[in-house]
Amino acid sequence: MWKYIIIIVVIAILAYLVIAYYPPLGGKSSAESQKRIHESPNFADGKFRNQIDTPMDYSFKDTVDALYKTVKGTPNSRPKKSLPSVPFDSKAFSDSGDDQVIWFGHSTLLLKVSGVKLLIDPVFSDYAAPVRYFGPKRYSYELPATIEELPEIDAVLISHDHYDHLDYGSIRKLRNKVQQFIVPLGISGHLTKWGVDPERIVELDWWEEQSFQGLKLVSTPARHFSGRNVNNSGSTLWSSWVIMGDRSKIYFSGDSGYAPHFKEIGSKYGPFDLALIETGQYDEKWANIHMTPEESLQANQEVQGKLMVPIHWGAFTLALHSWTDPIERAKRAADQLGTPLATPKLGEPVIIGAQEFPTSKWWEE
Q1: N or C: more exposed end of the chain, with fewer CB within 10 A?
Q2: CB neighbours of 127 closer than 8 A, spacing ≥ 6?
Q3: Contact at 8 Å (CB) between 195 and 175?
Q4: Contact call for residues 191 and 197 (beta carbons, < 8 A)
Q5: CB atoms < 10 A from the CB of 28, how many?
Q6: Burial of 220 from C-beta contacts in 10 A (0-12 / 13-18 / 19+)
């Protein structure tokens, strides 16, 4: 009897130590950050809340069904070979006077706006998980560039703290080549634990604006959730982002279910020259927190995006649809609506405001 009690106690202690001290799980916010969190109108009963009711009830039956489908497998859930890509040319990117965006797969994007270099949701690791080999593995064997091959970055923007958007290994490599980290409320606790100087972190609540090297950056609402371990769900805020420069306005949706905030953002800050909108990793049971491709095109219309780039696909399998389903459905919906849709390969630049943009069906190659 005592033997089993000792085993249970040891397991409990080990679990506590992992949750408290394993670096990829993140850290806790400072007292100053906690004060701002508790003063936020979006924080209630110990958690951040969405603008509208967002139930995420997942029954035992749903869990069993998802496990069965995962074990059974989804046809074409991963590409059979590494995705085609365009090698990143750091000098050409830095020297170009064009406002542009380069997609690295999923939601990782490198932008240059009015000469300012921004990196959004940088995930360069092979796995979107706290432990290597456990969790979704990246499709591509190599990305268009490593972190070491990127130019010096003026600012990193983060949408929320899930593993496929905020990556421990990537932040550790980036921390000394980024001037500023601009993030939603509460994210600073993760970054400081990973060695980022608190003086280089700015936290914003929804609708707060930050001037940065001539740009206006706005943390705007999304309909999602947060958390990196079993005991901190809702402890940090999730955001979409508005980026406004001299020549271009860009919208980045982050992760979001379809909701009225898109129309509100479009009314306040639109139209946008470019909209980077979540289009993949959806399921009917997650409808409140992830959009279908058809909803993504509707969201693009409501934020008044002149050109849309589908994101949140092309890197990791996080849902039970085929890996090409997001782009195929988005392309059909865009054609039906007459919406311009850019479909860049990994690493292929999209010049903001240009008459021509990438439209190849490279996923069929």
Answers
A1: N
A2: 133, 134, 135, 136, 137, 138
A3: yes
A4: no
A5: 16
A6: buried
Among 277, 286, 253, smallest CA distance to 327 is for 277
For the segment 323-337, what is each residue's pLDDT rounded down to a tens digit? 999 999 999 999 999
Q: Which helix (H) or strand (E) holds 164?
A: none
- Closest by Cα among 182, 173, 212, 218 to 200: 182
> In the numeric block, which tokens belong to residue 356?
């021509």
Contacts of 334 (CB under 8 A, 6+ apart): 297, 308, 340, 341
List the chain domain ranges: 33-52+80-364
CA dist., res. 210 & res. 203, Å (int): 10
- For 261-278, the three-class secondary structure string (H helix, E strand, C coil) is HHHHHHHHHCCECEEEEE
The pTM score is 0.94
Question: What would the pLDDT profile of 193-214 be if each residue is shown by its tens digit?
Answer: 999 999 999 999 999 999 999 9
Beta bridge partners of 156: 119, 181
Topology given in CATH for the domain delimited by 33-52+80-364: Metallo-beta-lactamase; Chain A (3.60.15)
Report whether 329 contacts 294 (CB < 8 A): yes
